Structures are given as structure tokens and as C-alpha cells.
Amino acid sequence: MYRFITVLMFTAFAVTCQLGCGTPVRELTWDDLIPHEILSDDPLKGLNDEQRNAANWVVYMLENLPERNSESEEIYLMVDEAIPEFKEAGIDIAEIMEKRKKLYTSVVHELSGQQISIAGYLLPLEMSDSMVTEFFLVPYIGACIHVPPPPPNQILHVTVADEKGYKSAALYDPVMVTGVIRVESAVKELFLVDGSDDIDTGYALEATEIKPYEIDYQDL
């Protein structure tokens, strides 16, 4: 009889825990949103600091310059002069750009459906007064507004499960967001002071909990 009661109590505890304890929450860093094998394949591996800075500048210009015209011609000429110098040093700018593209667009499909938490900065998309119901979570201040947007795998499109939303104190509030993550490519319109911009996102998250967070920059 004692053994039967013990087994019964253990079974009841296990069922209660399954119902009440919830799914374990995995705390992520921003690097966790990039496949490990791609993250470890540094496109600038083997370059010294001067070469890295120059390569980053050339690649950024090639990725972001408008069409060649009288206004952009001077910068294009600087890029044209730099590329042969890289070639002489055995540095393939086209290969670096391809690796960077893979680094910035690849996602971790295994994360879909997981209960996760991640810290970042809140950039509102939909809000009423100071209550935010939809936002971007980004890894650094100024993203998408003052500086170019992060790559899609470094932006989370967050919807708030609570219809009331989250009370935001200011733009780029540091927060810890918990919820179920999904791999989901989307383009969301972000309204700015001087117009709007389309932002590519690689992940979606339905937030069940949002808390103010003191950012530890070593964690991002």
C-alpha cells in the first residue's frame, strides 16, 4: 500500500509539473541567431587590422552606394583604386562579400518553436500612447534609424501577447523579452520622422514576458 501511494504521489507531481512548470526557457545571445558553422567562418580571417578596416569600408560602399552618377563618382573612384590593391595582396573582395551575405542572411532553423529569452533594444512599430504592441528587437542603439539596419538574422519582429502591450519609457528601451521564436522572413515598414523604410527580418517572436533590462554589452 505504501509503495502504491508513493507511486501515485510521484505520478501526480510529474503531471502537475508538466502543467505548471512550463517549457524550459533558453536564454540566447545575438550570436546564437547565426548558424555556428557560418559564424566561425570569418570572411576576414588572415587579414591584419588595416586590411580588415579597408575591406570593411570597400564592401560597405559596394553594398550601399547608389547608382554611379556625378554625386557618387568620387567615392566610386576610391573603391576602383582599392580593389586592385586587394587583388595584389591575394584578397578576393567578391568572396568576402559572398561570405558576409551568407553570414548575415542565414538563420538557425532549429530555434523555431523554442521558448527563449533574449536581451536587446526595443524599436516600436505599433503603439498607443506609451503602450507598445509590436516592435523590432535589435542588438544596438540607433539601428534602423540613425545607422543602417542590422542584417535580417539580427532583427526580431516581436508581437506582444498581452493586448494591452508593454509600457515603454523611451525609444530603444533595453529589455529582456521571453516568448516562442519562429524562423520567419518578412518585410516590415518602419515609419520614420522623414518618411518610412522597409526592414527585412529573419525571426518572429510572440512575447509572453517583457522586462526592463540593464544591458551587459559583453552578452550581446
Task: Please explain how this structure is put together.
The protein folds into two domains: 26-35 and 107-212, Beta Barrel (OB fold (Dihydrolipoamide Acetyltransferase, E2P)), CATH 2.40.50; 39-105, no CATH class. Helices cover 31% and strands 32% of the residues. It is built from five helices and seven strands. A hairpin with a 2-residue loop joins strand 2 (115-128) and strand 3 (131-138). Helix 3 (49-64) crosses helix 4 (73-88). The relative contact order is 0.14. Mean pLDDT is 84; it is low at 1-20.
Number of domains: 2
Annotated CATH homologous superfamily of the largest domain: Protein of unknown function (DUF3299)
Number of helices: 5
What is the quaternary state of this protein? single chain
Question: How many beta-strand elements?
Answer: 7
Computed CA radius of gyration, to the nearest angstrom: 23 Å
How big a fraction of the residues is strand? 25-35%
**What overall form do the CA principal axes indicate?**
globular
Helical residue percent? 25-40%
